[in-house]
Structures are given as structure tokens and as C-alpha cells.
Predict the structure.
Amino acid sequence: MVRLLIFLAALALVAGGLTWLANNPGVVDVTWRGEQYEVSLLFGLGAVLALGIAIAIVWGLLRFVFRIPSLVSVGAQSRRREKGFQALSRGMLAVGAGDARGAAKHAYDASRLIGHEPMTKLLQAQSAQLAGDRARAVAAYNAMLDHHETQGIGLRGLHIEARRAGDHAAALQYAMRAQARAPAAWAGQAVLDDRTRRGDWAGALATVDSNAGARLIDKPTANRWRAVIKTAMAEEAMERDPKAALVLAQEACKLAPTLVPAAAISGRLTAQAGDYRRASRMLEAAYAQTPHPDLAAAYLRVRHGDSTEDRLTRARTLARSAPHDPESLLTVGRAALDARNVSAARAAIAPLIASDSSNGRPTRRVCLLMADIEETEGNHGAVREWLGRAARAPRDKAWVADGVISDRWAPVSPSGTLDGFVWRTPDERIAAPTESVTPPPPPPPPEAIAAPVPAPAITPAPEAIRSEPGQAPTIVPAPRSGVIIDPASMAPDDPGPEEREAKRRGFRLYANE
């Protein structure tokens, strides 16, 4: 709309100017080679305008003629660039599809056509990785370090190659260089993994703080990792410096209230300091959120001088925090058994054995507790039964990480992941497929039963009679357990079922020739 208004305004100005010139005519005198020419003003202006247009056309033609070589060169470069980007695109698609040969071919074409492009170097490195050529991949990533745009990609690629080669020191150096250049999530995580793997908890805590400050991790994750690291530090300092360990455990509880090891350490150290009431409240609050045997054990032993009856009372008090959790029932049952109150122990774990709970399959701890109860009462047969059921019972909850089941918590999993252990029920093993049993053959039809085939005559005898035409019969002693088969009752070269059965039993058969 604005352009239209501008065009209309310009058109109005031109029309107004021409109208003014028409209303105010003038004469233009032109002297050319001693002769004088007089033309009107409008004609003179038109001639000047036409001359300007002609000059512009001629200049444009001359300029085009002189630019033909450069235009040809630009066109060739444009086509070369277009082919290079096509090769680059196809190479990236080949890398994504896992086509090592195609990726290498397109990487060569792209480097030949547009070798100065950063993506070309990345394609060369990835095609080398796909082909398993580590030396070529490392060379490509090293070449990326010479350009500012590709330094981050080069450092990350070198870090990955160093980890694949098992050179963790070099991998850490590349990650630290990348972190110093520009904070990246992978670099910060790599540095953190190295710190935690080596047990450098102070360095790990500083790394978490720097990653959180650079917003590479969110705030809940940062707080959780800080709590895990401080819990690990508290575990190491429990023996040599209980006060510092208590401070660290309390800070970890504030950062992650559901972290069971931090709450257990804080409760134990608070009880050791003599503040039994505060320790009990702390453990009760943590147990209400996450029922755990470590919390129950710490709660029952807040005061070391308590009797077994006192611990049973404390177990029942703790169970009120999570009355329907199996851990509460097991805690009360074990405390009752320690107090020699067998009836209370049976009543406590009865819901865990009933058919309407646990799908009729009590867990391993329940079976072992029942075996202890039966052993206390002297029922040795029941003890063997419950021990046998415990061998086949489902697993109880445990600390699980990377497929490893542990009874104790650890801040780092076997693969080096911080906060990798999770309190959950381990996965059950898949049983081996049982062999299929072939069903028995169907019974014969009634008509086959109605007309049985006559069986051949079988005559057991200690001796066999052999005779030749025109000779007296000869008595041949038969072997032990031998039988004589009448050949007249059998078809030639067709052993009957009785003969096959006799052979299966090991009898030696004799027949008249």
C-alpha cells in the first residue's frame, strides 16, 4: 500500500511538471559546427533523455561483454558448490543409515568440492568412525581444532575416541579444554564422572556447582547430586570426624529429603551425640516418606541399652508411620522374634503370607523370617519347607544399578554413574523354556479293536528241536531265557511285534530252518 501511494505521488509530480512546461514554453538553442539549431524545451528534454537511455544501454552491453569470463567462473563455482552440498547431504544420510561405503564416497566428493566447509570435516570424521578407521577419525577431529567454528565438535570427537581407546586421562583433558572454552553439558558430565569415579568428592561438588551455574543441569538434579556427594563425604568422615559428618548428612537431608542413606547417617550420628528425641523424629519422618530397613535398624538402635521388649515397642511405634508397608510388618515381626514373642511375630507377618497378598508368594525375607520362627519352636520340618520356599521366592527390594544387586548403597554405580543405585524390586529371571511333551497317540477306531490280528505262537522252552528232511531230529540246548518263535506264523522278512519286544528285552530267538 505504501509503495502504491509513493508511485501515485511520483506520477502526480511528473504530470504536474509536464503540465507546467506546456504552460510555460521555451526555446533551446544548440550550436553545432557553426550552425545554430533552435528546438522547443520539451523536445530538448526528450532528446537528452533518449540520449541518456541509449548511453546506458550501450554501457550495459559493453559491461556484460567484459564480465563474461567472470560470470562463467561464478556459474562454475555455483554448480560446484551445489554438487558439494548435495554430496554433503547424501553423506550425512548415509552416516545415519549406517552405510560406511556410501558415507566414505560422499565424504570424499564433499571434501573435493567444498573442503572449506565445517560440515565437510564432520562428515569425514563420522564416515571414518563408521568404517572403524580410528586414525583417520582422530586426524579429522584434530583438523577441526584449527577453526574456531569446529573446535567444540573436534574436542568432543577426540574425547569419544579417547574413551573408546581406554585413555581416560586424554579423554578428561579434552573435556576440560572444552569446558574451559565454552561450557557444554557433555564436557561437564565427563569431568563429573571422572571426579566421582576417583572418589574426589570435593572436586565433584565443585563441578556440580559450576555445571548448575552454567545452567547445564536443572536445579532439582543439581540438589540431588549435591546431596549424594555430601552423603558420600559423610560416610567417609563418620569414623574420623563425626561432627563434620553430621553436618554433611544434615545438609544432604535438606537437599534431598528422600535420600535414605543421608537420613540413616544423620539419625545414627545424632543419636551418638545423645539427642535421642531429635534422632527419633528425624528417622520417623524419613521412614514415613521412604520405608527402608536401614532406617528401621537405625531407629531401633537409637539407644544401645534398650532391651528387646523396648525395641519391639519402638518397632510398633515406627510401623504407625507406614502401617500398610511390608517393611513395617517385617520390622515388627523381626523385633518380636528377637523378644521371643513368637505369637506376635506370626501375627505381624501373617498379612504377608495370606493368599490375598503378594499373590500368594511371600518374598525371600518373609520366608526366612518364618523359618526362624519355626526353628524357635523346634519345627524342623517346617524350617526345611520355608527354606525351600525362600530359594524360589521373589526377591525383596534392594539397591539396583546397571543390573547389579547390592545390599548396600553406593554413591556411584559400577559403570561410574553418580546416583545410579535405585531402591526397587530386582527383575525376576526368565526361566528356561521347558521341553514340550508329545501327547499320546489317539486310541484306535472301534472297528480296529473289534478285529484283532492273531498273534504268532511263542513257546518258551529250555531246548530247541532242529530237523532236516530225512534225518532224525536233533535237540539243540537253548540259551538261558530263550524263546522259540514259530516261523509259520510270521511273514518272511517281516518281524512281528512279539519278536521286536523279545529283542528289546534281550532275548535270543531261535526258529526252525
About this structure: The two ends are 125 Å apart (CA to CA). The CA atoms of residues 291 and 327 lie 6 Å apart.
